Amino acid sequence: MADTSNPLHSWFLGPKGENEQLLKELLASALQAHVDWRRSYHPEDPSPIAAGEQRTAAAVRQSAELRTEFEALLQQLRGSVPIFHGRYNGHMVSEQTIAAQAAYFAAMLYNPNNVSREVAPVTTRLEEEVARQLAEMIGYDWASCWGHLTSGGTVANFEALWIARNVLYHPVAARLATRALGTDISVSLPDGTRESLSDLDLWQLLNIRPHASLDLWEKLWLAAPGPIIESTLKAHSLATLGYQDYSRQLAAEFGDELQAGVVLAAGTSHYSWAKIVAALGVGTNQLVFVPVNAECRMDPDALWDEIESLTRKRVPIMACVSTCGTTETGAVDDLRRIVEVRARAEWELGVTFHVHADACYGGYAASLTRKPDGSRHTASEVRKACGGTDWPTDQWVRSISALESVDSVSIDPHKLGYIPYPAGAFLLRDRRGRELVSTDPPYLAVATSSESPDQAVIGRFIFEGSKPGASVAAAWLSHKTIPLNSDGHGRIIASTMKAARELYALLGSFDFAPLRVIRLPEPDLNIVCFLLHHPSLVTLSSLNALNEMIYRELSPDAEMSAPYMITRTKLTSPACDQAIEPLLSLMGENGRAYRAAIAEGLTVLRSTVMNPFSGDANPDHFPGLIDAVRRVAVSFLGDPSDHVAHFARGKT
Amino acid sequence: MADTSNPLHSWFLGPKGENEQLLKELLASALQAHVDWRRSYHPEDPSPIAAGEQRTAAAVRQSAELRTEFEALLQQLRGSVPIFHGRYNGHMVSEQTIAAQAAYFAAMLYNPNNVSREVAPVTTRLEEEVARQLAEMIGYDWASCWGHLTSGGTVANFEALWIARNVLYHPVAARLATRALGTDISVSLPDGTRESLSDLDLWQLLNIRPHASLDLWEKLWLAAPGPIIESTLKAHSLATLGYQDYSRQLAAEFGDELQAGVVLAAGTSHYSWAKIVAALGVGTNQLVFVPVNAECRMDPDALWDEIESLTRKRVPIMACVSTCGTTETGAVDDLRRIVEVRARAEWELGVTFHVHADACYGGYAASLTRKPDGSRHTASEVRKACGGTDWPTDQWVRSISALESVDSVSIDPHKLGYIPYPAGAFLLRDRRGRELVSTDPPYLAVATSSESPDQAVIGRFIFEGSKPGASVAAAWLSHKTIPLNSDGHGRIIASTMKAARELYALLGSFDFAPLRVIRLPEPDLNIVCFLLHHPSLVTLSSLNALNEMIYRELSPDAEMSAPYMITRTKLTSPACDQAIEPLLSLMGENGRAYRAAIAEGLTVLRSTVMNPFSGDANPDHFPGLIDAVRRVAVSFLGDPSDHVAHFARGKT
């Protein structure tokens, strides 16, 4: 017969458990293999459980009690949100691959702890492979980069900034260390010239390229016995001194009061960045929001202006965070241009910084740019893989491909990798950076000469300690069977992006009368944002109340009675003004009133179309969702004041 | 028949998979329940998978490929470390409860994300219950405390210090905020007197009890409209300003250059504390190690001396970290005395600080102090529950019970809770502290009036973002069926502590001739540390090489050929001098030579006896382990120089 099957259909359990049999078989073989393994380990040892003990009244009662409580748990779990279903287009969560589910369970039975090879010889090796799979997908050179899995995007982003800060301040420590040792050393400046470290002023020391800062570290390492250099460098580092004494040391040394270093991020960057800068002691004041453009992407011109302005004020820049797939709208920054802006800053201003790509959501889109042999597709080949449309644009492909040129990248397998929680990943282009945050645990084995020194004690370099090898196995098997190229994960991404564009188009053509739909620009990935509007809503708070109400009515409740589920987010001013303005301009008279009140932000509805079956699941779902949105809105208009009060009270 | 069954025997899968049938049944019912649930959700929706599609050549090939790769994974997993077995007494990992394994799997199918109730209505509720179970076990009042699960101990400890720092500096922000608002407010000082906030100097502001600091926060909250207070407080907080500008603000305001705040921790505290203070910007220099006593517990007299000395230097103390079950030796600090030292510091010196108990390893020991009705056992009742011996001591019971009186506690369910990774927990005695680190995610639902406001958006208060509801379900079901009292987890703890003491006694009575065994003091929990010694080893490095060699030979290798597995750790000088000294004094002449070289540290062998079947599994195991240790040592002595070289090269 003609082979018309869709590969996506066998990768997931399916909305009706269509592939139940496959998962069931895999689970049974995992348990069998595990028990066989247990039995084959010193089979001569007697069992601690006496014959007949399992049939005593107490043992039988205990198992019965466990079964009862377990049934109660299963009953409770029926109240879960049906994220697996095409009717759910809310948060960034959906199906998990069967490969990931089965591998997670299989490895969990062995409970490996990936903090060290000593307790997890198998899954630490798999972790290297997963890191390599992801690194090669984005285009990092495995010979010089490093990566590992984290509990999620927050920790991955945290590690990026933690390392960036240490790399930024390292030349200062190096300068003080060389002086203490009576040596000097040359260093490459952003404009390409070389200078003696001792000739640089504080501003120059804080504007050394990450790679050059790490060259300095390596050179010093070779210049004197390791322990001496290490202790001298450490004695002058921020990690050792802490901010308070470090600032004092700089003031004494350079007669220059160091300005607080800042982190540049788009106005739509993830809320965790505020937590991260607060926790690191950087301070949320130092999180400088770069405005976004109409597409909700970081505006490269605004970025340049910000860099120029900071340079005039002699404010060092620790890092710039670009987002590949914002949590709010799925926008993909024009990363190529951001990297170009940094290059220009290096040449024209002598200023540089670490560029981190927060690709927690969108990172897997890079699989679309990869052929099965690992080489890159051209933009037109990518479009062909997406079904021969005029999309994605050359610029989109360039943005995604530019991930290879930034200093670090975070990608969450538990988002578009369809792996169960917890699975984040952190990738560092120049692996030497991890040395600046390393710690030596006293009781974990250090590498011996016959092992790869890189991963033997992963715990030395990561922020977390104990961590599940099971999630590594899940990502590994999933990537192995659904490869990170256009035949594997690329198909899933392409299919959900296509579905999202269908929803977007349908929203545009649907008649919402007496309301109107206002759509954000076409989605960069698979998140569709829009809002409903009616001329009678003369205040921004009533407009927001309408859309909040739609969101609440189309949210999970105890009975999962909403026919469809979506979420919402808030575009804030002034960071998102360029994105808000075109929306307001479509709302005529009202738009002007809204503009005056924009400090309260604009609520937009948000629909994450990441269900792998969205592309072909049920042709009624998108019309059904749109109709449900319209019906809630119409009922709201029936008595908006009542609803506003209702909303203000909460849904009681 | 007489019911002589051991409850521990049905709680775990067993070394030969004795309880395989029970686990298999639970897994099957979990999958069945999940698939039924999927099928019952909008059964009228058609399946996206066409009839016959699963039997097409491509679909069959795809599943076959997954089966093949899965088999290869299972084959690889056979190289895992047999941590489930009584022959493994290495790191802090062992069996997992069947309840936890089954519940993890069951909940993972629904993949709830406990960042928010909106995506995880069931498991966020269970997370509250788990937090409450743990809080009540240690003795916190659920009405005023807070808790949640983390990816592990590092993040839990990080959150403790993150909150402690914000609470410490809060009175300074409050003082600046009240001035900006033109108000004043009274505050309670450590010696019990009350003063106007505006009358306090910087030193006094940095020595307000955590509870009083939070009272201040609450009073201010009531004194003026929330948003005004919030923004004013925030504007003056360290989290907003960052260390650099905060220090400048203090210098300008108080004409006083603020000394860097320090964290007090025992010399044997977990290595993650160095990472945490480095990451927070506190600096590792500010991690002040308090010496331990002969039992490897923090020395309360040394703590007092340190506090006095810091007070003379006007160095503020951010927190004191006490350990309940050190990773290295399992030592349980005399927490009651540490709390008394703080009380004395408050009265005599006017100095106070946050006390955090790092009970990541030992926290579950508190279950031994609980009767089934939740009330406390007396010390003699605890001893009765432990088998009627003269152990544990009154002091041990007081130390464990004192967890109720500290400001925060971290406990890892994935250690002595026998839950699969990842499962840490953070408990905060005064829940208001979390407000000082909160962030509002723009797209997660905030609490409505009908919900408990505490956990609806757990993501506001925690460091991490997305996190697995599955690990919560695992802890919940395990605690439900193996309760946190002397009938449940207390039995496991008691049984492993008893086994550890048996190993300890056996080590003491065994004839190691021509070597001698030197044991550390009797274990506080279930970790037994010792080292072998021979008079011919005249240098400390040769002594350490002997014990490193024993460790290496009794470590997992590719074939798992070691008959028994243990680990090792290093006691460092000067932090552990009081613990090292009695050991050296047992080594006569050599001891003096070792003392001179003690800067390199003393390697000790470390055996974590946490296998739930250790108590009664196999009477040959401990003699076998001891004999294996002796045999490796004897072979080392055959040609120690060769082995030293061998060790220095690594095991090639």
Quick recap of the structure?
The structure is a homodimer of 652-residue chains. With 652 residues, the first copy, chain A, is an alpha/beta fold. Chain A has helices at 8-11, 20-40, 57-77, 98-108, 121-138, 153-181, 202-205, 210-223, 226-235, 238-254, 272-279, 300-312, 335-349, 379-385, 394-401, 469-481, 489-509, 540-553, 577-585, 588-596, 621-638, 640-649; strands spanning 146-150, 186-188, 194-196, 262-266, 287-290, 317-323, 354-358, 408-411, 424-428, 516-519, 527-533, 567-571, 602-608.
Verbal overview:
With 652 residues, chain A is α/β, with parallel strands linked by helices. Mean pLDDT of chain A is 91; it is low at 443-455 and 643-652. The N and C termini of chain A lie far apart (56 Å). In chain A, strands 1-9-8-7-6-4-5 form a seven-stranded mixed β-sheet, sandwiched between helices. Chain A has helices at 8-11, 20-40, 57-77, 98-108, 121-138, 153-181, 202-205, 210-223, 226-235, 238-254, 272-279, 300-312, 335-349, 379-385, 394-401, 469-481, 489-509, 540-553, 577-585, 588-596, 621-638, 640-649; strands at 146-150, 186-188, 194-196, 262-266, 287-290, 317-323, 354-358, 408-411, 424-428, 516-519, 527-533, 567-571, 602-608. The first copy, chain A, is built from 22 helices and 13 strands. Among the domains of chain A are: 163-254, no CATH class; 490-649, Aspartate Aminotransferase, domain 1 (Alpha-Beta Complex).
